[in-house]
Amino acid sequence: MNSKSLSFIFILLSIYLTNALPLYKRSCSKSHKVVKGDTCHKIWTKYGLSESKLRSLNPGISCSSLKIGASVCVGSGSVSYNSSCSSHYTVANGDTCYKIWSKYGLSESKLRSLNPGISCSSLKKGDKVCVAGGSNNNSGSSCKSHYTVGKGDTCYKIWTKYGINEATLRNLNPGLSCSSIRPGQELCVKNSSTSNNGNKGSPSSSFTWYKECNTPNTFAITFDDGPYKYDNDLLDLLKKKGVKATFFINGDNVSDIRNSSIRSIIKRMYNEGHNVLSHTWSHKDLTKVSDTKFRSELKLLEDQIYDIIGKRPKAIRPPYGSNNSKVINNLKYFGYSYGILWHVDTEDWSNLGNVSKIHNFVKKGLETSKSPIILNHSFYKDISREKLLKAVEDEIDYLKGKGFKGVNMETCIGHSVYRSSGEGFPN
Ligand SMILES: [Zn+2]
């Protein structure tokens, strides 16, 4: 090797070492300036840290080439995150990594990549966690148009100016903190691929409400607010009666969808030919939530449903049936095509499963529809296995006696109620 190539290698090495200098970032609560004779061992001992803690506070630190004058993070009170972090979250009491990544619609691996060395088992109140990466996250090629924040600008002014809504602005700028936008900051206000971004999912071009099935002499029995522990008994009954049903489930309402027994009920529902559709994550009135909350109410549940049955719903029953034009626009934006209401409300929740009252509501409903969608619940106050099964069996026997066939929502409306495979949640 001649001296030319040696010096070339030396230059490369210098570039590498320079780039491998300690990388602690703004969240560091305490730093140490490297002096002559310092070693990593000396530093972590001096500040009562372990080697792994020092490394987690300084991702990429090269202990064999510590440079005099370089800063090393030694503040153990904060979680380090990489330099491109554009939004932080301050850990509160009771927070877990799971809560944080769910709250921000991230995955575990995304949270970890934004916070190298984060120790989820020892999160402390006041720790700063990076929840969005990239300088404003809009530097990617997908942003078609940027806006530079001016003095006095607010998020509201900006999304109004560009004719977009809050959800869109936030989707274009993940991690955007509207309370702290500053003049000179660049925000993405238009995405080149909002209309068709393949496996990211795309907005729906139309939205239709249903209260009845499209096929005469069918009925669609639906159960809201579950899963609940009696759903397995309900599934036995439906199987015995040869009826397909639809379950509008929640993620975290009366049951927690992360619970394995609940997941196996959902799997069984799907495997036995029933439809499993969205009733939102936590049963909030969608006309009363922020756009950010709206998004998470859909996405958190969808991601779990996808994890369990491998399908994403594009039909939803909004909690309380509550909706307005803004709800519809948001649902479309997030890829939903069908809103499912009902023609018959059995009022099982208010009459506490009273069989004769439920029977009368169904009977009355048949006077005005030959293909009703019927609202029941998997859970209501004072529910018992016996009450639930007795009322549902009575409903089914009555409808079948009239010559009606019990079908799932897909058959009822004559459209697929799930997105095509590979289609994810719109960004
Ligand atoms: Zn409900």
From TrEMBL:
Q: Name one Pfam family in it.
A: Polysacc_deac_1
Protein known as: Glycoside hydrolase/deacetylase
InterPro entries (alphabetical): Glyco_hydro/deAcase_b/a-brl (IPR011330), LysM (IPR018392), LysM_dom_sf (IPR036779), NODB_dom (IPR002509)
Its organism's taxonomic lineage begins at: Eukaryota, Fungi, Fungi incertae sedis, Chytridiomycota, Chytridiomycota incertae sedis
Which residues does UniProt assign to the signal peptide? 1-20
Domain LysM positions: 30-74, 87-131, 145-189
Gene Ontology BP terms? carbohydrate metabolic process
| Superkingdom of source | Eukaryota
Keywords from the UniProt entry:
Carbohydrate metabolism, Hydrolase, Metal-binding, Signal
Spell out the molecular function terms from Gene Ontology: hydrolase activity, acting on carbon-nitrogen (but not peptide) bonds; metal ion binding
Its required cofactor(s), as named, are:
Co(2+)
Every copy of the NodB homology domain together lies at 217-407
